[in-house]
Amino acid sequence: MENQDRLKEYWRRNLRLMLVLLAIWAVVSYGFSIVFVQALNKIHLGGFPLGFWFAQQGSIYTFVGLIFVYVWRMRRLDREYDVHE
Amino acid sequence: MSIQIWTFILVGITFAIYLSIAWMSRVRDTRGFYVAGGGVPALANGMATAADWMSAASFISMAGLISFMGYTGCVYLMGWTGGYVLLALLLAPYLRKFGKFTVPDFVGDRYYSDGARVVALVCAIFASLTYVAGQMRGVGIVFSRFLEVDVNTGVIIGMIIVFIYAGLGGMKGITWTQVAQYCVLILAFLIPAVAISIKITGHFIPQIGFGGVISEGANAGRYLLDTLNAISADLGFDQYTQAFGPNSKSMLDVAAITLALMVGTAGLPHVIIRFYTVPSVKAARLSAGYALLFIAILYTTAPSVAVFARYNMIDTLNNVAYEQAPSWFKNWEKTGLIAWVDKNGDGKMEYRAGKAIEGKPKLTGQTGIYGQALVSNKVVDSNANELYVDRDIMVLANPEIADLPAWVIALVAAGGLAAALSTASGLLLVIASSISHDLYYRIINRSASEKQRLLLGRIMIGVAVCAAGYFGINPPGFVAQVVAFAFGLAASSFFPILVLGIFWKRASKEGAITGMVLGIGFTMLYIIQTKFLGVGNWFFGISPEGIGTVGMILNFAATVLVSLVTKAPPQDIQDMVESIRTPRGAGLATDH
Asked: Which chain B residue's Cα is nearest to A69?
């Protein structure tokens, strides 16, 4: 029974991590790059209007970063709950 | 040495590499044939996935497409990368733990129904076939442009090469050739991009260069993007970095298309099956990260190439007398990718917003008083634009614009071929496995021997190659338009039921079948209405490319509602869902 609870907790923590990362995914791509793009374009990053930069560069870097954070945190979580391969 | 000789040499060398890899990785069992034996390291799978994903369109057309769309080009950039986050977090690790051969395998087993399996395999075939036709055509076009062979001969050469390495090595052969193809295509894309970045801004990293200042000419010292904005406005276009301008798509439409492409990416079977080939759940997650990293190298370079090429094109062509046109213009004029009609008879090329001519240039073979190639198209008189510019020229002519040596131009040809062949082979395997594994072995003849199944797999690769080649040689007029189908279908059919199948044990077979049928039905209806029957974009102005988003939401809603009023899945299915949620014991992919 104890094992069941442990797996439930593992799954809950996996879901929590996933939701946090997906929230960042949504904010950067749909927030910064689409909904608030015109407001952010008033700020400049060198020659880039910021909203435009997020839409064509920043969002992609963020996506790559999100997956590697997920890989790293899940590897730790797998070990902690002893479900790793 | 001439460009053509270099092209023969480089294309010859790369093809020889692909064929030797195929010979070294030939397989003798179905596990090798369908999932490469399940032993592909994460890094190699990342490269293979990137090559699998980046098609002839990503390589040749995307940068040009963006340079005409400006900000709105972000729908492709984000749409075709953001889906990997969904794939890594929501699908890849769990499907790897499930550990079968194909996507219909999961749908059929999880929803305990051969009905669901059949719906899934029909969707997989349809999405892949529409996609692969364009790839074979791409192979033919690259051949004809760089080697001056007939397009159809090019398609047939491509078919033979793909058949040899996919038929011999199945997924294993495909995987290792895709690794090689990734290296070829990324080099071919980066070398001209770096050179043109140095030429225009003096900066060798294109991603930084296009936010930098112009280093020479009349606009020296000004920010490149600011200059491009000012020029665009002068010529009657929307400003390049401006979002939702009067000639661009609305905010809702941009969001809908981006989401449909992201979700479609995560639901496309030829991408998903790549994650069955790695040895563990951990490796599945990691290889999704590598895949996106390798894709991002091209996808963050493309928007900078778009800006450089557009600035350079306007700067060197607009208001310039034809006799002073740069040599690349005259070289590419012969291909019909770029054309000039002197509307006002002043001998200068004026580039403005609007269409110069109706349709694609039809060369008459004669030249005008300035030596320009004449076209027989009807000239559009309602605007002052005199230039027709095909989007593909932005990548294809780049090496010449940047004054690079002949071997770089040849490398771009080899890169285009690598991009088209790698994507085609991945798609062909999905089509072949849908018939030989999902339909024949799982539904018709469960007692087929290993040898029979391997032989059938190879025969089906042959059949799929022939079908793809047929569509490559006789492209149905609507090929370009049905790409929206592939993404819309994947978004509205597979993605919701895969996610619910993993994250919601209660999802039932009745729910999944209703969801798939309703999602696809609505999406297909809308695309057919708007693309072929001339109906306007009646759903809140959303383009057909973005309607997969609505189809996906319908699918989610229908699956949940119907599941709640039907019987819960049997206990063994719920236990199976429980077990795919933990990584331990992933083991090797199996066929039953």
From this structure: B289
